[in-house]
Specification:
Blueprint (H helix, E strand, L loop, with lengths): L1 H33 L1 H4 L3 E3 L5 E4 L36 H14 L21 E2 L1 H6 L1 H8 L3 H10 L1 E2 L7 E3 H9 L4
Antiparallel strand pairs: 1-2, 3-5, 4-5
Subunit structure: The system is composed of three essential subunits: KdpA, KdpB and KdpC.
Subcellular location: Cell membrane
InterPro entries: KdpC
């Protein structure tokens, strides 16, 4: 019996070391060499070099002077990132959407869907350009800036990927707002 058990245990140990230690270390090393920014979380730094967030994860921005991101079912906590699992007919979902719409509403303009609905992860860092542009009037009023200047800022931060719709990273946009004019 030991003759059969010993090779099985050695095989298990070798495969565990190979797939549980060697392969992850190899992949991590290749990622660090080939894609260091992405491998370290796509961190966004301000002019002083301080980390302000990740380009991959949404953050809360409160106040009329900032561009707002999509709502988050997990309150922007990465541990509980997920959708709300509320069915379309659930009154709690309708109430949350109505509250989000009321918070973002501008006189006479329908609120873009991206500003009142959560994403699948609840942490999407991007908005469609129309959702960012919708907020320009509110921010222009709060910051005493020309709306055209803010619209140009949104346009400058609009990413147009080869495949998929155009998007605006809210963290990058708000960091540009926070920079003093030059």
């Amino acid at each position: 019996m030991l003759k059969q058990l010993r090779p099985a245990i050695v095989s298990l140990a070798m495969l565990s070391l190979l797939t549980g230690v060697a392969y992850p270390l190899l992949v991590t090393g290749v990622a660090q060499l080939a894609f260091p920014d992405q491998a370290n979380g796509s961190l966004v730094r301000d002019a002083k070099g301080e980390v302000r967030g990740s380009a991959l994860i949404a953050q809360r921005f409160d106040g009329a002077q900032w561009f707002h991101e999509r709502p988050s079912a997990g309150d922007f906590a990465t541990v509980s990132s997920s959708a709300s699992n509320l069915a379309p007919g659930n009154p709690a979902l309708a109430a949350r959407i109505a509250k989000s719409a009321a918070d973002e509403a501008l006189a006479g303009q329908p609120v873009p869907q991206a500003l009142v609905t959560t994403s699948g992860s609840g942490l999407d860092p991007q908005l469609p350009p129309d959702a960012a542009l919708y907020q320009v009037a509110r921010i222009a009023s709060a910051r005493k800036l020309p709306a055209a200047e803010l619209a140009r800022l949104v346009e400058a931060h609009t990413e147009r990927p080869l495949v998929g719709p155009a998007v605006v990273n809210v963290l990058a946009l708000n960091m540009a707002l926070a920079e003093p004019p030059q």
